[in-house]
Design a protein that fits this description.
This protein is α/β, with parallel strands linked by helices and 226 residues long. The chain contains 8 helices and 12 strands. It comes from Ancylobacter aquaticus.
Length: 226
Amino acid sequence: MLSIAVVEDNDDLRAAIVNALGGEGHHVVGFDCAEAMAEQGQALRIDLVVVDLNLPGEDGVSLTRRLRTTNPEIGIIMMTARTRTDDKRIGYESGADIYLAKPVSLDELSAAILALSRRLRPVLSTPAALMLDTVRLTLGGPRGATALSAPEAALIAAFARAQDHRLETWQIIAVLEQADRAPNRNALNVTISRLSAKLRQSGTAPHPIRAIRNWGYQLCEPIVLT
């Protein structure tokens, strides 16, 4: 989980981003201008900032330079309608880690945050990987072992073997069919919800499985198969 500040003057867009990232387990606060962040965000420990360039008052480039100077380790994602090469160069030179051209889908933003989090919090990916015992059908984690059904174990194993721990919806259905359970797409949501509950029971973050809109799901926890 990261502490994220969203600096965006469009109220609807800011609210959508704050809600979406909060739903993924991050602590997210929104600001409508750089001055509001400077005034209200001093007491917050912020890991990453999503910043628009066209802000009222201090613009996003100036804010980025200031943040990079005062906190060199902070993650900064610029999100802007400026798409010219010169604009991107200025964005990166001012200190941005990632430059996204609007319109930006929430899935693309989430993927950028996930990629950047590997630098910001490398410790998260190493200490407490879950252990899936494919023989005993148990999932071991910081809070102990959790019993799994055969379909649940098969699905976690498939996530663990997939690139970036991502599976398309049809792949998930195929795995469950092989495990003698063939859900339709509505029942699949129930299966994912139950599996997420068992992952949390083993000691994961609040949202161990992330839905990728119109595509599938991603397991957001490191898994070791035994």
